[in-house]
Amino acid sequence: MDRTAQLTARLPERATAYDPPAAPPAPASSASLHARAARVLTANWTGASTVPSRSLYPHQWSWDSAFIAIGLRHVSPLRAQTELETLLAAQWGDGRVPHIVFNPSVPLDAYFPSPDFWRSSTAGRAAGAPRTVQTSGIVQPPVHALAAWLVHRADPGLSRARGFLARVYPRLAAWHRYLLHRRDLGGGGLVSVVHPWEQGMDNSPCWDVPLARVTPAPARSFRRADLDHGAAGDRPTDLDYGRYVRLAADYRDSGYAEGGAFAVEDPAFNALLIASEHALARIAGELGAPATARHARAQRLTAALVDRLWDAERGMFLCRDLRGGEGGGGSGVLVPELGVSGLVPLLLPGLPREVVTALVRTLRGPHFGLGGRTRLVPSYDLLGAAFDPHRYWRGPAWFNTGWLLERGLRLHGVTAAADTLREAVLDLAGATGFAEYVDPFTGEACGTTGFGWTAALALDLLHRPPGTSVSSTGTGTFDSRDMGGDRR
User: Fold this and answer.
1) CATH for 36-462 (3.40.50.2000, 3.40.640.10, 1.50.10.10, 3.40.50.300)
2) pTM of the complete model
3) Does residue 436 carry a catalytic annotation?
4) How far apart (Å, rounded) are the C-alpha atoms in residues 116 and 335?
5) Compositionally biased, Basic and acidic residues: which spans (predicted)?
């Protein structure tokens, strides 16, 4: 019996199937998009988790699974819960949640870096890597507590019957402890990433200066499987990939200990941690545990984010290169590149009003062009020297960042812009066959299609009608239905 069947067998009868609450009839086009998105998630489902793409990404990815669970909750809350439980079952002893959990039935040459590169069970032994599953040794943005809370709210009865929150809360708390205690490499209270893959926006020009200090691994030392499934012009260059491999190999050879050549405080990574701290407070409250300290921590992190990464002149948050500056030590230097990561903190409730106003102005202005030159938010400055509308994270628009910014706009009362962005996400997701990312000008599909989080987040937006407000009560990251109200 597979894991999903075992979980289902232990549930009360009412939990073995999900009948969504009654809702007004959806327009035919919305119903069709809903059905198509659900089919993508079904096709990518492995029985215990969802792959981002059957061809290009045949394993389980950390932040992909969080976003996928957010959409799956509208189709099957049980599968959404299982998605997160499967990922968290691969957590290391030191608390880190690895960015890839490898499927042992997938051939080694289907994806690189493969399990034999990471050597998690041996190189990660001192850090408590699991022995029963192979994983990578780096992490990805901590969207998981936010996803867990939203999944719980989709069917609280099922969640309580299965003890879902009680099981995942200790693991989520350990994950946040790891980040806050082991990754505050700059000493200013924020979390650092030690590899571009950890931040999730792998090939962003924001990493060009920090990466320039890294000697690339020889091209003959690895084989890129991604080029078997995607156009070379859409993917990172061989030079960049060589640097990624060098950083990952050095980190592995250190026993996955922090302190390497790359350390960057990123605004999106930290904003998602803050949103998830607020969500952990909500989860704690649901479980009858104190929540005040977590809200206070989220407020302190928000203050640190503004203090260390806000650039008032540019009207957005910037990355801080901790190895930059004279001697490569001290507090580092801000990287002057404008990436979509610097807009993502818009989803936080505790930002000063002047910061929110500036972020919205930047989002709509010439650098990102939302509502003017572009329908979806580009991943990099339209006016930047490194802008490329097709190459991975160097200009194309992504659906997960569109979803995050839609929530931020809605939270801060910029409802018309949020509705316009919602419509663009849904239109382009459907028109491109749920593409991985798109040209921000033309909407042309890039990367692979049938992409997991594109389908999942389209589903989520279909369940949030235009004009919906987002409450800042308690968290500022959830709409009224997520706070326990109407679940239409």
Assistant:
1) 1.50.10.10
2) 0.90
3) yes
4) 34
5) 479-488
